[in-house]
């Protein structure tokens, strides 16, 4: 028992890379389980059209979030002194408030904006809620940036869990016994952001002095604005393009195929891309902090290669599983009306998987201050995906559109991954071997699920998929020795981290 406690203590140590990531992933695992348990309920409370409108609203907020503070909050990790980091945080906050105010004024002409942008008219009635949602999200992101710098990962985990649980419970509550439709999904989303922001605010007041420091002088704000100008000049446009890149289908699918297809796509996205992105976000938060330290100590290549391999390990099995039995699993879990979403997933899974691997590693551009290169890659990726969507949409064939979109997105992500790994000094041959290794490990359990799909009932396919996932996870944990041993060699940088403030 003492040995078990020692191993668990090592697994959740505050220092190094693995401990903070495991702390963040613990909260992610809880919200992941709750989210998946809630999805079958939500898909029976709301129609595909309601999900489509809600996804469109969230996409608008996500795109504006990438603009709101010009990405200055990403520079909070870089200064060695807290005083300068606080100045960066104040600058980002002031910019976020200014952008939110402009969005609030623009929403007064929501119908005119909807018509001008060619957006579906059903979204106009909800645009007045974009500004408050944006302000709440930006406050949370700014607080998260400061707490990440202070390595307060447990606090971040609590805030994210509060946010997700509040969204789910509010949506179920608003969907049960009401006729709100898309309004219930949008209202639940905003309620979750409000509670998450409140949690972050309380954490800042309790754990730091960030909110009790006087606003920096104009000269200090101008100084940090000039010093980190690469973030608004290159990182912000790149972040905007990456956000639009991931959400572009939600913006264009209603134009070509209507809200039903958009809602089905959204559930396909939620089934794989969102869980993997939650893991990726946890990894990215710690990767940025420890990656900057690794770069200063000339060990960024080995550190990046290890993180990349772990991301591939996590995403490979669910990607292959949904390619093998997506329609059967969707029909059982979400209801027979959502089977088409599982078919979409078979086309989209590889793209979603590569998104999840690449997204956390984009911090390499910030660590190495290569935002110009990131912007160039983002522009190329956006143009490629947009061309695929326009081409597929013009044919009127939904599955062809999904295939073209997935192919273009996957190619763009492969190119981006190759560039990032090369910049970090990682051998592409060694990095590529991780995909082959984990695909071969995942193949036998996935084949078991594939053989019984369409033959056995849906509940049996789902149980077999759970057993196959457990077998895959157990094997890679044993093979890679992820569970820490008492006499294990410490991770790179394990003694470099500071305790949570």
Structure, described:
The chain has 501 residues and is mainly α. The protein folds into 2 domains: 46-228, no CATH class; 229-501, no CATH class. 80% of the residues lie in helices and 0% in strands. The chain is built from 18 helices and no strands. Helix 2 (18-45) runs antiparallel to helix 11 (259-296), helix 11 runs parallel beside helix 13 and helix 13 runs parallel beside helix 16. The longest helix is centred in the middle third of the chain and has 38 residues, at 259-296.
| Principal-axes shape call | globular
Q: Fraction of residues in helices?
A: over 70%
Rg, rounded, reads 22 Å
Written as H for each helix and E for each strand, in order along the chain, the element string is: HHHHHHHHHHHHHHHHHH
**Residue fraction in strands:** under 5%
Number of strands: 0
How many distinct domains? Answer: 2
Distance from N terminus to C terminus (CA atoms, Å) equals 30 Å
Summarize the main sheet: none
Task: Return residue spans where pLDDT drops below 50 for at least 5 consecutive residues.
Answer: 1-14, 483-501
- Provide the structure class: mainly alpha
| Count of helical regions | 18
Mean pLDDT: 82
